[in-house]
């Protein structure tokens, strides 16, 4: 029976401490099933998914095979889907993905592996899909199906509109799904339009279903699937009612569930100061009144009667939360020298502070906190902007080719010679030629990736210059996990931690600004955050760490909700304008499809909206009215290391 706090949940949902732990639990269940069947001489039929979500499960299964002798000889697998039009060896094909992540590392017989083919002739697709269904039946049906969930609510590639009874078929990918895949395919134009997928009906026939979801970007869709009514416009919600379905999610993917978002509505709570603030800011938003105008009746009518009994009256609660919220606002993110700092988010001393701003890619710092960076530097702090990865995977070819073509032209004009090796222009010509030899979505050569890194470095320098940050305050770490990897294949290694710890030790910062704590742990910013956690653990014995504060910023396209903000830095209209001007410098990060601008918002537009709406949110609860605000949450060193 569901516990009281889960009363709104229509699918049993386990919130695990981390994606790695969830993945270990799922892998252990699969391993037990495989072993039990092997003991009685039977096969087990697994339904498998691709994407970044199941990667830690496959990693653990490979470990169990290599270190604990788990054999896959009795395992038969059926994958959910495949992009239509891709060869098996295309780097983004799900065939390639499955062989690279799992099959080639274990002893599964090749004939036991089934991944829908992306190269069936269009005229034979219907029969092919029927034969896929039949093969599943003949194998005895799916025993254990693992699933991820797309932001459209898709399972497999069953996009909104898929019916409950749908079977394996050719489908058109949703625009949002293609946008989400654009990064992997190095451009949306390269993302296939169609896919072959098992149907919702095929999935529902599996005996056991386990859906996993990590990271904040999945929180909304997880909530809709778990708490909403079953709806074909959100195919994952159709899993409700299956006799053996469970969701395994990490804490960030759980954030929108009622038991996390509004815990006071589903049972007794421990009214900590942070929870009180969360409840009252929510109340203010719900009844559309500023904090100081909230009345006892507002509390009572919105499920907060218990809070009044516990810590009321309303007048006292209002004042307390008003002051707390007011005290998050500061124009001095590095601390205000010679000022009383008892009600300021940052301490006055030491001053000036050594500040280290970490960006997972070379645009994150300015987009997310350009106004704060400008203030810190302007107010005398010693600011270092460090970029953990080069970001070269996100640079479109056309921009790189333009750069090279320019180099080639320069050569003609300037007769540049580099020793007795290739001239600059000849070098450019060779690389330009190499673009013709590889397909659009093939892996870039090392030289091309290097050039793309330079493109991003220069953008980051141009952006910082607008905010009056010198280039010698910027450092590009080019962490190896990124240089050696590709999307969906990033994993932090010791060498990454070595590089970042060395930087921390050389700067000995009083403040570190970092993002990625809530991101999918397999994403670039999620991996960067884990590298940071490990680096901080490594330097934890150093004296300066005791005097160091960690400020977390949310990452591109996102912002902390009001109740999570510990420091809010207001920007004047002029400061916001400079930040937006700086954001224009990230040419490589602009939408590559300006003709579809209505559906593709540019990052500078998002940045502008986000900073303005944070200011509006402060205004709405009764604070002063600012043009824009950048926001930060403090993470204690203990919380960072305990994680
Ligand atoms: C993949 C699949 C998809 C993904 C979903 C989430 O085989 O069927 O439904 O599970 O798109 O993708 P990630 O895990 O990359 O967020």
Which secondary structure elements does this structure contain, and how are they paired or packed?
Elements: E1 13-15, H1 19-39, E2 44-48, H2 55-68, E3 75-79, E4 81-83, H3 94-101, E5 113-114, H4 125-138, E6 144-147, E7 169-172, H5 175-181, E8 194-197, H6 200-204, E9 208-213, H7 219-227, E10 245-249, H8 258-261, H9 273-287, H10 296-301, H11 305-311, H12 314-326, E11 354-359, H13 364-378, E12 382-387, H14 397-414, H15 424-437, H16 446-466, E13 474-476, H17 480-484, H18 494-507, E14 511-514, H19 524-538, E15 549-552, E16 567-571, H20 573-583, H21 603-620, E17 628-635, H22 637-642
Parallel strand pairs: 1-10, 2-3, 2-6, 3-5, 6-9, 9-10, 11-12, 11-14, 12-13, 14-15
Antiparallel strand pairs: 4-8, 7-8, 15-17, 16-17
Bound molecules: fructose -6-phosphate.
Task: Walk me through this protein's architecture.
- By secondary structure, the protein is of the alpha/beta class.
- It folds into three domains: 47-259, Rossmann fold, CATH 3.40.50; 275-326, no CATH class; 354-394 and 444-642, LmbE-like (Rossmann fold, 3-Layer(aba) Sandwich), CATH 3.40.50.
- The protein contains 22 helices and 17 strands.
- A seven-stranded parallel beta sheet has the order 1-10-9-6-2-3-5, sandwiched between helices.
- Helix 13 packs across helix 20.
- The structure holds fructose -6-phosphate.
- Fructose -6-phosphate binds next to loops.
């Amino acid at each position: 029976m569901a516990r009281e706090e889960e009363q709104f949940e229509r699918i049993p949902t386990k919130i695990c401490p981390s994606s790695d732990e969830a993945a270990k639990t799922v892998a252990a269940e699969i391993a037990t099933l495989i072993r039990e069947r092997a003991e009685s001489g039977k096969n087990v039929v697994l339904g498998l998914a691709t994407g970044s979500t199941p990667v830690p499960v496959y990693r653990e299964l490979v470990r169990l095979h290599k270190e604990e002798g788990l054999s896959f000889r009795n395992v038969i697998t059926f994958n959910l889907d495949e992009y239509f039009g891709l060869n098996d060896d295309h780097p983004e094909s799900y065939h390639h993905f499955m062989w690279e992540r799992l099959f080639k590392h274990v002893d599964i017989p090749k004939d036991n592996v089934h991944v829908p083919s992306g190269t069936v002739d269009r005229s034979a697709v219907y029969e092919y899909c029927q034969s896929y269904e039949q093969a599943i039946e003949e194998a005895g049906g799916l025993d254990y199906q693992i699933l991820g969930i797309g932001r459209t609510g898709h399972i497999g590639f069953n996009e909104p509109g898929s019916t409950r009874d749908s079977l394996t078929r050719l489908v058109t990918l949703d625009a949002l799904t293609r946008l989400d895949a654009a990064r992997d395919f190095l451009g949306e134009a390269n993302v296939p339009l169609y896919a072959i997928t098992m149907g919702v009906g095929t999935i529902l026939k599996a005996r056991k279903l386990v859906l996993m979801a990590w990271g904040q970007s999945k929180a909304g869709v997880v909530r809709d699937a778990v708490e909403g009514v079953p709806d074909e416009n959100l195919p994952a919600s159709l899993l409700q009612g299956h006799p053996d379905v469970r969701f395994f999610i990490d804490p960030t993917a759980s954030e929108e569930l009622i038991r996390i978002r509004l815990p006071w509505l589903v049972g007794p709570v421990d009214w900590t100061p942070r929870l009180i603030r969360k409840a009252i800011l929510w109340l203010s938003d719900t009844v559309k009144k500023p904090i100081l105008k909230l009345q006892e009746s507002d509390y009572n009518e919105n499920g907060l009667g218990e809070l009044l009994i516990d810590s009321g009256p309303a007048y006292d609660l209002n004042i307390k939360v008003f002051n707390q919220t007011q005290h998050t606002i500061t124009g001095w993110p590095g601390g205000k020298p010679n000022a009383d700092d008892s009600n300021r988010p940052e301490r006055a001393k030491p001053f000036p502070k050594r500040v280290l701003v970490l960006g997972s890619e070379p645009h994150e710092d300015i987009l997310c906190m350009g106004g704060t960076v400008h203030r810190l530097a302007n107010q005398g702090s010693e600011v270092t902007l460090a970029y953990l990865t080069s970001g070269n995977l996100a640079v479109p070819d056309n921009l790189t080719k333009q750069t090279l073509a320019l180099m080639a032209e320069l050569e003609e004009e300037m007769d540049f010679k580099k020793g007795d090796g290739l001239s600059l222009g000849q070098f450019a010509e060779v690389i330009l030629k190499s673009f013709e030899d590889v397909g659009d979505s093939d892996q870039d050569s090392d030289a091309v990736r290097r050039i793309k890194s330079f493109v991003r470095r220069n953008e980051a320098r141009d952006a910082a210059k607008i905010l009056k940050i010198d280039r010698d305050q910027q450092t590009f770490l080019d962490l190896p996990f990124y240089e050696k990897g590709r999307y969906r294949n990033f994993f932090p290694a010791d060498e990454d931690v070595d590089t970042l710890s060395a930087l921390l030790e050389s700067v000995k910062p009083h403040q570190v600004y970092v993002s990625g704590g809530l991101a999918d742990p397999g994403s670039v910013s999620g991996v960067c955050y884990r590298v940071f956690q490990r680096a901080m653990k490594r330097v934890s014995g150093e004296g300066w760490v005791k005097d160091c504060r960690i400020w977390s910023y949310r990452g591109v396209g996102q912002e902390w909700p009001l109740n999570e903000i510990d420091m809010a830095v207001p920007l004047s209209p002029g400061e916001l304008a400079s930040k937006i001007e700086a954001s224009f410098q990230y040419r490589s990060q602009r939408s590559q499809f300006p003709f579809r601008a209505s559906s593709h918002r540019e990052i500078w537009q998002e940045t502008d909206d986000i900073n303005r709406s944070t200011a509006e949110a402060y205004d709405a609860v009764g604070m002063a009215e600012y043009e824009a605000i950048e926001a930060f949450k403090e993470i204690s060193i203990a919380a960072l290391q305990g994680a």
